[in-house]
Structure formats: structure tokens, C-alpha cells
């Protein structure tokens, strides 16, 4: 039997062109195995925001293609949604996309004796990200040192 990561990668490969063809972008895929079923979570994004109709349409489209391709060797549930306003930033491109936005970052290793930062993304290089913290303090965090990052909801 395939491992969970292989199944997730195959699903992503299968559904990405289907989602893109209807003018929506695939943001992330999560796949996990519960006791008797799998849980496939698909997060989508659209320039002017994701609607319930978008989620329903993507769900129908990917369900049809997954039924044909059959990459999951057991029964599963599909959930389609937006990643939300406080979406996680996982890839370097996510930081580039949200440059200028405020994020919450947790690092693996301390930088200046701290591992938790809230600041605005001011620059994204090939291996590091610069943030503007409160009181005009700047910090550069190597991408590989970022444990978790999410957008902060700005009101």
C-alpha cells in the first residue's frame, strides 16, 4: 500500500489541472487516514475570494476525476474550503505573495533570544525573509528556521 505522502502527491498531481481549468487556484492539500476512512482536505483560492459555490463546484469536479483515477485505496471524505484570512504560509512563494502583510512566525531556533515574531514581510530572498517588527526593529529569518507562519488578520 502507498504511504500517505505518496497518496497526497498523486492527488495533488491529479486535481491541480482540474481546479486551474475552472479559474481557481489550489492552495494546499492535506490528506490523513483515520480509523476506517481517509480525510482529504482541499484548500482553494481565487483573486476575488472563494464562495460556497466555488467549493461545491471544485468538490464535484475533483470527486469525478478521483473516482476515475482512483489514487486512494480506501474510502475517504472530501472537504473543500478556503484557507481563511489567517492562512498558513508554507512555501517561500507564499511569503512572496503576501509581501507587505503582517505575519506571525515561530522559529525552530531562537533569533535574538526569541522564537516568536509578529511583523510585516518587507523582503523575501532565496533563503531568508526580512520582517519589520514593532518599534521599527528589523529581523532576517532564514526560511529553513521557520517552524510555522500564518497571516495575521488585520482589522
Describe this entry's structure for a reader.
- The N and C termini lie far apart (47 Å).
- The protein has helices at 4-21, 52-69, 92-97; strands at 25-33, 38-45, 76-81, 102-111, 114-124, 128-133, 137-142, 146-151.
- The chain is built from three helices and eight strands; from the N terminus they run αββαβαβββββ.
- The protein folds into two domains: 4-81, RimP-like superfamily, N-terminal (GMP Synthetase, Chain A, domain 3); 92-151, SH3 type barrels.
- It has a five-stranded antiparallel beta sheet. Strands 1-2-3 form a three-stranded mixed beta sheet, covered by helices on one side.
- Helix 1 crosses helix 2 (52-69).
- It has 155 residues and is an alpha+beta fold.
- It is 27% helix and 40% strand.
Short summary:
It is built from three helices and eight strands. With 155 residues, it is of the alpha+beta class.
Question: N- to C-terminal separation?
Answer: 47 Å
- Helical residues, percent: 25-40%
Report mean pLDDT, rounded to a whole number.
93
For this structure, the CATH topology of the largest domain is: GMP Synthetase, Chain A, domain 3
What's the structural domain tally?
A: 2
Shape: elongated
Strand pairing plus helix content: what structural class? alpha+beta
Corresponding CATH superfamily of the largest domain: RimP-like superfamily, N-terminal
Name the features.
8 strands; alpha+beta; SH3 type barrels; GMP Synthetase, Chain A, domain 3; 5-stranded antiparallel sheet; 155 residues; 2 domains; single chain; 3-stranded mixed sheet
